Amino acid sequence: MIRIEDLWLSFGAQQVLRGVSLEVAPKSITVLAGESGSGKSTILRLLMGFLRADSGLITIDGRNVTDLTERQWVEIRSQMGMVFQSSALFDSLTVCQNVGFYPHFVERKPWSKVRAEVMELLEELDLEMHANKMPGELSGGMQRRVALARSLIYRPKILLYDEPTTGLDPTMIQIVNELILEMREKYDVTSVVVTHDMECIYQVADHVVLLVGGEATTIGPPRNLLISDEPAVIEFTRAWREQLQNLKQQLTGVAGLDPGARGESNG
Predict the structure, then answer these.
(1) What are phi and psi of 121, to 5 degrees?
(2) CA 73 to CA 75: how far, in whole Å?
(3) Number of neighbouring beta carbons within 10 Å of residue 244
(4) Which run of H or of E encompasses 73?
(5) Per-residue pLDDT tens for 26-76?
(6) DSSP string spanning 24-45?
(7) E strand intervals along 154-240
(8) Share in percent of the chain as helix, strand, coil (round to 5)
(9) Model confidence over 136-177: pLDDT tens digits?
(10) Cα–Cα distance, 135 to 94 (Å, whole number)
(11) Other CB atoms within 10 Å distance of the CB of residue 66
(12) Is-contact 91 136, C-beta < 8 A?
């Protein structure tokens, strides 16, 4: 579905991507992991045609998109949806209007037709009862669901998520992770998720690519993050490995307590 080969990109003297190569299988969830500034969000913008690489090749659904014109990119983007860190909803528009914003307000399609399509989608996502509410009336989880609905209005083949769990509490992180999985299961979309959140990586990823300093390392299944002896992988997962090691020691200590000793101390 998506293939990137030997991609290089610089902004002035700053080299952002250094020969990045990766593949995203159809209907899979591929996570681009890495710390801030590693180049992972830049890849999303290249996949959407918002940036152009200095060299390398990008193919989407078998089509070379590396040197497309803006007019040609419009066709490609119609098959893709992008979900940003924040829900980025219009506060002054209802849920229904937010989801139908682009086809009605930008493409100038009749509202009667757009509204029918929007309501069908909202029903699929269990959002129809919120159609006339304003974003401020919704919970954070519902706002993310509406943002996904807006991305799904064209029934895209590909969904791109840019740091979808950044700044969220644990409950919201779980909700967003479940939404990512639900979108794949319900709509058979191919998903690319940019994140540095280990919990998100382990819950949603089929395949992980780690970016460090603009260079990509293919990890494979997320469990490989904890068993890899690659220095870059060890450094990225250091805090997570230490937490797991501490938890293991605590559990071992509890399991190793002598029941007799506990009884004597209580006596």
Answers:
(1) -70, -45
(2) 5
(3) 12
(4) helix 70-77
(5) 999 999 998 888 899 999 999 999 999 999 999 999 899 988 998 899 889
(6) E-TT-EEEEE--TTSSHHHHHH
(7) 158-162, 190-195, 207-212, 215-220
(8) 45, 25, 30
(9) 999 888 888 898 899 888 889 999 999 888 877 888 888 889
(10) 7
(11) 17
(12) yes
Q: What is the residue type of 115?
A: R
Residue 31's closest CA among 230, 165, 185? 165
To the nearest 10°, report the CA torsion of 107, 161, 53, 216: -170
CA dihedral of residues 28, 33, 38, 43 (deg, nearest 10): 10
pTM equals 0.85
Decide: 5 and 195 in contact? Cβ < 8 Å. no
96: part of which helix (H) or strand (E)?
A: helix 95-99
Q: Which residue segments constitute the domains of the chain, with CATH numbers given? A: 1-79+158-226 (3.40.50.300), 88-155 (no CATH)
Distance CA 231, CA 18 (A): 18
Inter-CA distances, 41 with 37, 142, 150, 158, Å: 8, 24, 20, 16
- Please give the radius of gyration of the chain, using alpha carbons only, rounded to the nearest integer: 22
Helix (H) or strand (E) holding 21: strand 14-24
Which tokens in the block code for residue 37? 């500034």
> Can you tell me the distance from the alpha carbon of 225 to that of 121, in angstroms, rounded to the nearest whole number?
37
Extract the tokens encoding 207: 């395949």
